[in-house]
Amino acid sequence: MRAGILRSPSPLPGFGLSFGIIMAILSIVVLLPIGALLGRGLMIGPADLWSMVNSRRIWSALALSFRAALVASLFNLVFGLLLAWVLVRYRFWGRRFIDAAVDLPFALPTAVAGIALTALYAPNGPFGQALAPLGIRVAYTEAGIWVALVFIGLPFVVRTVQPVIEQLEPDLEEASATLGARRPYTLRRVVLPTLTPALLTGFALCLARSVGEYGSVIFIAGNIPNVTEIAPLLIVIRLEEYNYDAAAAIGIAMLLISFAMLLAINAIQVWSRRRIGLV
Amino acid sequence: MSVVPLSRPVPVTTEPRPTRHLLIGLAVGFVALFLFAPLVTVFAEALRQGWVASVQALASPDARSAIRLTLIVAAITVPLNAVFGIAAAWAITKFDFRGKAFLITLIDLPFSVSPVVAGLALILLVGANSSFGAWLAANDLKIVFAFPGIVLATMFVTFPFVARELIPVMVEQGRAEEEAALTLGASGWRSFFTVTLPNIRWALLYGVLLCNARAMGEFGAVAVVSGKIRGETTTMPIMIEMLYNEYLSVAAFSLAAVLALLALLTLLLKSLLEWRHADLLAATRRH
User: Fold this and answer.
1) Does B131 touch chain A (CB under 8 A)?
2) InterPro entries under this entry (chain B) (predicted)?
């Protein structure tokens, strides 16, 4: 029996085989490409990398991607909580239907969502025409990017918070009510703190996905440099110009943002496990 | 035990009735505006010039080759990711080894990397400008702007889907049943096929379903590596973009409607699985 230092002994077979499959596919599909991107960055060198990223157009694109993701995630935080609460706590006609529909953004390809939202919000589309008299333009402005990212990110918050609401014991809310708390006070001081870690996790997942989103955004954004041009699109443009170094520089900047958010998500989960043992 | 005064039905563990109705109204309104409206638009735009125009658009050689390519890509990536997911879940849940948490983080990595960055990374690895890519080109192997690149890009973005569904389920089921099978003399493969696989089949199907939906619909990563050669490297989402940019709205939305129907089918099967086999699926439904 091979009981190495790295692995505690187990009677079950197949560790070598399964571990071999994981490492082979993981390396080919994920690690080697990511390594190639980082390696390219090392070859370019930090000074040149910085000078390539440090232009107004790239900063605007990175700031826009992050800002729009933040706006959409905050919006989804509120409406995701509302949806999760309504779906778990209330019984109404069509509840299961709405519950199933929440996953639509996961199932619908982003390009399909992108052209559909553009058709809706374009100046001659039904929503665009309805909003025009109010002086609101959505398609081909930053608001269009928000709408697309709200669509993409909604399920992350709902599906993270929903199981936690399902597991909430009614005892706590009853105790709070027995002690004389009014309902809004109970919600604010008893229910909301329990949901906070799940809300934060959902928010972070939504943010991570939105920052890098491409398919649903490029159709509705209008893609005007410095105004509505998102960072992933800038990578595509650089690649089409065969400017691989510049594309790699933006890619590395985005990868660092992803790593930071991955760390944040893990930190939230460690913190919440320590705090209340949920999520 | 307790006497509830009938005249004063103060809600204790729920909200007052008007508040409830308001919240339900808001939630349904939100879903209608943000989810249903785009979905309805896809079909309305596809049928704008009637059924015939829509079907004709789908029967064009370009559309047919896009549909074929998408099906082939999914037929390759989904089984590979299923094998990977099973292997990953087996190693992670049945054994204790150092660096397990790090391995799980690596498996989750594609979730937080932009699809465009994934495509870019692939190009830097095997594109013509890299040393490895130059070697491949010298040996007449095309990966980027060709079919293998599309498969690799799709595998990257769908990588964690099956593993993510299987790991929580297999953690919950523990190791005792497999150990018992081995004690009774079953071989490793036999215990896998007669004990493990039946336990995880619904979770596996669930993961495969989600993986397939993403594989057929992936746009960003594939757009970067496909090169967009008509009839050769255009998957359905890429073809939709090309048609849309050429102002061929009906054709673009007709292809989009096919993908939307597929999404609806995915949701239907997913909901059926959740209602029927909720106990055998992962406790956390994060995606």
Assistant:
1) no
2) CysW_permease (IPR011866), MetI-like (IPR000515), MetI-like_sf (IPR035906), Sulph_transpt2 (IPR005667)
